Amino acid sequence: MLVRRHFIVGCAAIALAGAALFATRGYAHHGWTWAEDENFELTGVIKSAQLGNPHGLLTVTANKEDWTVEVGQPWRNERAGLTDSMLAKGVEATFQGHRAKDKKKRVMKAERIVIAGKLYNLYPDRD
Questions:
Q1: Exposed / middle / buried, residue 19 (Cβ in 10 Å: 0-12, 13-18, 19+)
Q2: Helix (H) or strand (E) holding 19
Q3: 2, 47, 73, 123: which one has the fewest Cβ atoms less than 10 Å from its Cβ?
Q4: What gap in Å lies between CA 66 and CA 89, rounded to an integer?
């Protein structure tokens, strides 16, 4: 009986540790800690789009380099007035937000998007 109790306690400890690791990784990915504090702007043409949850990812060609631009969740894009067809291949846009702290990575998180001169604010509560 004692061995069984230790086995159950051990399994529970492993499960809790795994859940904590998963929660930490999820928070780090979906938070802003990976991005610089300074504002960043990128203008380019959308090469491809993967829209949906937990957020959309665009590949944008700017200055002959491909960038990954993270946009909002479907509800956030819709609230800003964006439709999926506006974030499609061939659309030229300016993305304002924050780039990765690691300058080797061409990745940014967009807070605002300008298409055909119109501003779409994904995060109106952020600077």
A1: exposed
A2: helix 2-30
A3: 2
A4: 13
Q: Which residue has the tokens 């938070």?
A: 31
For residue 66, the model assigns a pLDDT of 98
DSSP 49-105: EE--SS--EEEEEETTEEEEEE---HHHHHHHT--GGGGSTT-EEEEEEEEBSSTTS
Would you say 67 and 107 are in contact if contact means Cβ atoms under 8 Å apart?
yes
Pairing mode of beta strands 57-62, 118-121: unpaired
Mean pLDDT in order along the chain per 10 residues (127 residues): 52 47 41 78 97 93 97 95 96 96 93 97 85
Vertex 99, ends 98 and 103: CA angle to 5°?
155
**Distance of alpha carbon 118 from alpha carbon 61, whole angstroms:** 20
By residue count, the chain amounts to: 127
Closest CA to 26 of 64, 7, 53, 5: 53
